[in-house]
Amino acid sequence: DGGITQSPKYLFRKEGQNVTLSCEQNLNHDAMYWYRQDPGQGLRLIYYSQIVNDFQKGDIAEGYSVSREKKESFPLTVTSAQKNPTAFYLCASSGRDRGIIVFGQGTRLTVV
Amino acid sequence: GQNIDQPTEMTATEGAIVQINCTYQTSGFNGLFWYQQHAGEAPTFLSYNVLDGLEEKGRFSSFLSRSKGYSYLLLKELQMKDSASYLCALTTSGTYKYIFGTGTRLKVLA
Questions:
Q1: If you placed Cys at A35, which of A90, B3, B5, B45 could pair as Cys (CB 3.0 to 4.6 Å)?
Q2: Going by DSSP bridges, is the β-strand pair B104-109/A87-94 parallel, antiparallel, or unpaired?
Q3: What is the pLDDT of residues B54-82, one digit of tens each?
């Protein structure tokens, strides 16, 4: 079955460390996205990528970095410059027709 | 830019009907989506409107009026498992961005 895999589901890191969240899709979707969700809040767009080797900043890109070397993969690095990194991170993808956006299961990052 | 407004919370009784509204301001509207999100889980797709009118899918229906910048999600025969957040999202022409509202937390009471 096609889908999006995020790993790990739970991640703990010490303050000041960079951490990379994995996202892989086998839906053959062109576009991929990273969203952040804080408790009781909506989804805020961090970065998105429409094609391989290209990506754009979303609304809250500061302190994050991404790469898109393969169509299937869109890893997100949370750097030490991100002031409040503890959150639920959701990866998603969509086809070229900008129809339904499909989400991975999410990664809950806790920085202590 | 884009702006999406939804009520923060709603409460309804099991077996009843509830309507969750979403208003938006945007230029170059492309499509409007509704997603369901249970606590601690990822959003799952419910409904998608591109043209004005009603889209029905079992117990869930979604309505769109592009001229009014307005959509609603209608849930019939409410069940306890419908307690969740409901997210309204839109896409605009010329971009692959999906913009989400803050969501409406629905509590279904027995």
A1: A90
A2: unpaired
A3: 999 899 999 999 999 999 999 999 999 99
Token output for A66 = 């991404």
Q: Is A58 on the interface with B (CB under 8 A)?
A: yes
Q: How confident is the model at residue A9 (pLDDT cuts 50, 70, 90)?
A: very high
User: Is the CB of residue A90 less than 8 Å away from at least one CB of chain B?
Assistant: yes
How near does any CA of chain B get to the CA of A80, in Å?
25
CB-CB under 8 Å, B98 with A45: yes
Residues of chain B with pLDDT under 50: none
Whether the CB of B51 is below 8 Å from some CB of chain A: the reply is no
**Residue to substitute from A29, A37, A59, A107, interface B, most B β-carbons within 10 A:** A37
**Residue of B98, B99, B105 to mutate when probing chain A, most A C-beta within 10 A:** B98
Pairing of strands B18-25, B70-75: antiparallel
Nearest by Cα to A94 from A46, A61, A50, A57: A50
Tokens encoding B107: 């509590």
pLDDT at A1 over 70: no
If DSSP states are collapsed to H, E and C, what string results for B58-91?
A: CCEEEEEECCCCEEEEEECCCCHHHCEEEEEEEE
